[in-house]
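dumping this here before i forget
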Amino acid sequence: MKIVVVVSKDVILNNIIERRLKDIYQVVVFNNMPSALDYIYNAIPNLIVMNIAGGEEDSAAVLNALKSDPMFQQLPVLAVLSESLAAPDWNCWLVEDYIRRADLEADLTARVNLSILRSERIVEINPLTRLPGNISINKEIQERIDSRSEFAFGYADLDFFKPFNDRYGFSRGDEAIKMTGRIILGVIKSNQPQGSFVGHIGGDDFVFIIDQTLAEEAARDIIRAFDSLITGLYDPADLKQGFIKSFDRRGKASQFPVMGISIGIAATRRRALTHYGEITEIAAEMKKFAKQHKGSCCRIDKRQSA
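structure:
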């Protein structure tokens, strides 16, 4: 079910929104933007509905900071205005649409549906994790290279995901993918709230961009969180024996250990790069190196370009 975050202190307004949307969307209500941030970072909702009233300058600042992050530029915001409030300066409120309070009963569902549909048409995001996909990833990397920014690029994927997916089915496989996306996003944004980036290439492949000084510790945090949570997706009997039985890519019956996560990291500091493909290739090489290690592992490129 798609998620709508409501930011409002008005109990009556919140009741109207919840009543109109509860059969279609998961509605989560917060009193203000600062209190909603942790949830937004971890869940990435499909829409924010924000009640705009007088004295909301703090919420405007927090919203604008969120929307200036490349991770959340695609997140649509629908503002609710009272009849007595003149339309604010939309240069100060980074919202995509607004609705008058008097029109909520008649038009809210349609406006919410349209806001979400419009964002999905315009922006390329992964439908499972709500993270930016390949086009956005490549654009983000290239813009940083062109501006000569120093950054680290991480490439992560899961070890033994296919046998897990075959053993437990697509539904539990999707849960593993969504959990991994939440872990990586939570860790990266916790280490660097502004200026970092997380993307989902597809399947069990994820990428992240973070300051070079923070990359190694962030990778360790991702590994620790993943290893502590992934066991919750296995049946107790399989955990007890330490493996699952499935088939390898050649169709041969085999035993596979609990999933791990492998991360390869490349950085711009030691290399003169001109194209996003260069750093992604280096990170993929490091990830391949990490996958040779038993269990979850991170490998960082420390070579110097000529």
